[in-house]
Specification:
This protein has 493 residues and is α+β, with helices and mostly antiparallel strands. The protein has 24 helices and 13 strands. Helix content is 52%, strand content 10%. A hairpin with a 4-residue loop joins strand 8 and strand 9. Helix 14 packs antiparallel against helix 15.
Length: 493
């Protein structure tokens, strides 16, 4: 990638450089000692990327990213007697990790990397200068460095200006940047969602034009980036950028398709906007339910209505219905998340939440029986808290009275659940006779009949609550007689 003419970028003033050096030295004092080691060994070392960016954004320093002209083997020689621990997992890509006290450093040799037309792995080559290393970075806000041990700011591409303007730009031409590493297309949306920054027009245009290049990126890398986006401060903003640039057509086509469906609640012009609102409301509800940046809840909120395009039906009165869209949506979510290589646990939980997200609406104004409440809790299982949040978030009506009525109904349901939980240990609902007792009473060996009897007793438990073993035994024997199962004679007869 050619290095842009840095004279076209307003450089930081002397006062800004001085203030930056003081700030970075204050936040990352351990880096100065390491920088001294490299200088005495005849090499360069600089803080770079997120370590510099986040210092200016006011965030606490985490692990420190550094870059150097020393090759990895030389890095190990320089730091061998200084670091408390080193690791070389990323050495093939020029990265050495080390720890000194409580501080973790990742030191990467100046480098550039580029994907071939069809390659899924980048070709990495070492560079010779800090400026050459910075221009290969994804965005200008990540293309700033501080030379060590002096903490002299190096900002050839206007990273500080971009931070002040709250905008995502690339150091060079965005077309070249995204062609070199197509994953940066998703990363642009992720940083915008995390920081609340706008994306420059030329970057947006390049995202759209280069989107087909994502086909060479592995599903695992795409999923890792989508996960970071979904856990950002405002993932709905990032998703909207992907949809607006047509990138979502490749990675989340079911979400993009929601723009074609009318929102039957009349709160938004389409189901897509409704889904983004539900996502934002679910995030707002996370603290209420003791959740923190919950990936399963957020994915379920975003995807909860993706079954609507396939279940759309026009009613005689001209209205639109989407019967059983939750079932179809669960299938589509399972398929998409599987293709993206999300974990089996995430796939199962998200699809189950989507399948259950309309269950509450049978509750109405409070007519649910204890049996129905038990089933609601049992069907949700460990997802109950997330189901609470998703169900509440799915209310986006503009009708204040309707919204208040729905909220009150759900308040009542949650209260009913807590009362029954105290009375019946709802979280551990099971038959009052276990498998061994069933086999003993009916004279059965392990097999399908035992499971059938167990399920019958579970239904009895859900329907009527705790009945006591004597009553349950009588019900089991009655059921067995109807099934043609002859229990052994009672002992002593």
């Amino acid at each position: 990638m050619p290095v842009p003419d840095s004279t076209s970028v307003n450089p930081p003033s002397a006062d800004q450089r001085k203030a930056a050096a003081v700030l970075l030295r204050t936040l990352t004092p351990a880096a100065a000692e390491l920088g001294g080691l490299f200088v005495r060994a005849g090499h360069e070392l600089a803080l770079v990327g997120g370590s510099v960016r986040d210092a200016f954004l006011g965030g606490p320093p985490g692990d420190l990213d550094l870059t150097t002209d020393a090759v990895p083997e030389r890095v190990l020689e320089i730091t061998g007697g200084w670091a408390d621990k080193t690791w070389t997992v990323g050495i093939d890509f020029g990265t050495v990790g080390l720890r000194k006290g409580e501080t973790v450093f990742e030191i990467t040799t100046y480098r550039s990397e580029q994907y071939g037309p069809r390659s899924r792995k980048p070709h990495v080559r070492y560079g010779t200068s800090l400026e050459e290393d910075l221009v290969r970075r994804d965005f200008t806000i990540n293309a700033m460095a501080a030379r060590l041990p002096s903490y002299e700011l190096v900002d050839p591409f206007g990273g500080l200006s971009a931070l002040r303007e709250r905008v995502i730009r690339t150091p060079g031409r965005p077309e070249d940047s995204f062609s070199d590493d197509p994953l940066r297309i998703l990363r642009a949306a992720r940083f915008a969602a995390r920081l609340g920054f706008t994306v420059a027009d030329d970057v947006l245009a390049a995202m759209s034009a280069q989107a087909p290049r994502l086909s060479i990126v592995s599903a695992e890398r795409i999923t890792d980036e989508l996960t970071k986006l979904m856990l950002a401060q405002d993932p709905a903003y990032g998703i909207d950028l992907l949809v607006g640039t047509d990138v979502a057509d490749l990675v989340l086509p079911e979400v993009a398709a929601l723009r074609m469906e009318v929102d039957e609640h009349h709160r938004h012009k389409d189901v897509y906007e409704h889904s983004l609102t539900v996502l934002r409301q679910a995030i707002d509800l996370e603290p209420r339910y003791g959740l923190s940046a919950d990936l399963v809840l957020r994915l379920a909120a975003l995807l909860h209505d993706i079954g609507k395009p396939r279940t759309r039906r026009l009613l005689p009165d001209g209205k639109v219905a989407f019967h059983h869209h939750e079932v179809e949506g669960a299938k589509l979510a399972r398929r998409r998340l599987t293709q993206l290589r999300f974990s089996k646990e995430v796939i199962a939980d998200v699809s189950r939440l989507i399948e259950l997200h309309l269950r509450f609406h049978g509750y109405g104004t409070g007519e649910w029986t204890d049996s129905a409440v038990r089933r609601y809790v049992r069907d949700a299982g460990p997802l109950l808290t997330r189901l609470h949040a998703l169900t509440r978030a799915d209310c986006t009506t503009r009708n204040a009275r309707k919204a208040a009525r729905l909220a009150a109904s759900y308040d009542a349901l949650e209260a009913r659940i807590e009362v029954l939980r105290e009375q019946e240990e709802l979280d551990r609902i099971r038959p009052e006779l276990d498998g061994d007792e069933i086999m003993s009473l009916l004279g059965l060996k392990p097999g399908p009949l035992v499971g059938k009897a167990w399920n019958y007793l579970l239904e009895l438990r859900l329907e009527q609550g705790s009945l006591g073993k004597e009553r349950v035994t009588a019900e089991l024997l009655r059921w067995a007689a109807q099934e043609g199962i002859s229990p052994p004679p009672a002992s002593g007869s």
